[in-house]
Amino acid sequence: MKKNQLVILVLLLSICLGGFSKSVTQKSIGWKPLFGKDLGQAKFDKKCWSLDKGVITASEDKVIWALGDHENFVLDLEFKTEDGTNSGVIVYCTNQEDWIPNSVEIQIADDYCEKWGTARKDYQCGAIFGHLPANQQKVVKKPGEWNRFKITCKGQIIEVELNGKKVTTMDMRLWTSGKTNPDGSTIPEWLPKPFAGLPTKGAIGLQGKHADATIWFRNIRIKSL
Question: Can you count the helices (H) and strands (E) in the chain?
Fold first, then answer.
């Protein structure tokens, strides 16, 4: 009897482990590092950007770009701020030399510092910079703690999840003006192109050290939809 029970137990354990392995594999399917192994699929200034134990950071306000263009994807990454950090995730970029008016930026900011905590809400973390505030502020953690972004870009629909909360959903088709947002607020003058007309295929990048405050990134991966 004991021998039979042991056999049954081993079989059940094998089935459970097999199911677990299959589940893990399914969750991993389609994901790949955005910048490849050891930044081998990235374009960046080596004097600015550095990689240490899986964490990348920058000493200047320069962008690290993934090679190639992307459309219809999910981008998953972690970031950490310090006091006063202002950075961003850049998508749909069609001109890397003049990326600011030719892309969409999902804002990263230290909402706890006075400068960004009292700024326009579309300058705060999780916002589509200059265009659409997050539906909740200070979802970002305080400086020194790791945060997680999940950004889904499918055509003209962009969804932003910050630390497990869906904070922003944009339909770019509604942004038909380069001067005024649909809610009547003013778009910064350095972003004059209406989002409704922007291409939805382009480069992906991460902004470096902006506003004299450091930003760190890790576990940056992408999956095509």
Answer: 2, 13
* 203-207, strands of its sheet edge to edge: 42-43, 63-66, 203-207, 86-93, 104-109
- Do 2 and 72 lie in a common domain? no
Structural domain harbouring 23: 1-32
CA angle 87-92-93, nearest 5°?
A: 70
Distance (Å, rounded) from C-alpha 165 to C-alpha 159?
11
For the four alpha carbons of 198, 200, 203 and 205, in that order, the dihedral sign comes to positive
Reported as a single tens digit per residue, the pLDDT across 57-102 is: 999 999 999 999 999 999 999 999 999 999 999 999 999 999 999 9
Taking the C-alpha atoms of residue 176 and residue 101, their distance in angstroms, rounded to an integer, is: 15
Whether residues 23 and 73 share a domain: the answer is: no
Do residues 164 and 56 both lie within one domain? Answer: yes
SS3 213: strand
Residue 110, both tokens: 């230290």
161 and 195 assigned to the same domain: yes
- Does residue 102 sit in helix, strand or coil? helix
Total tally of structural domains belonging to the chain: 2
What sections of the chain are H helices per DSSP?
A: 2-28, 114-117
pTM comes to 0.87
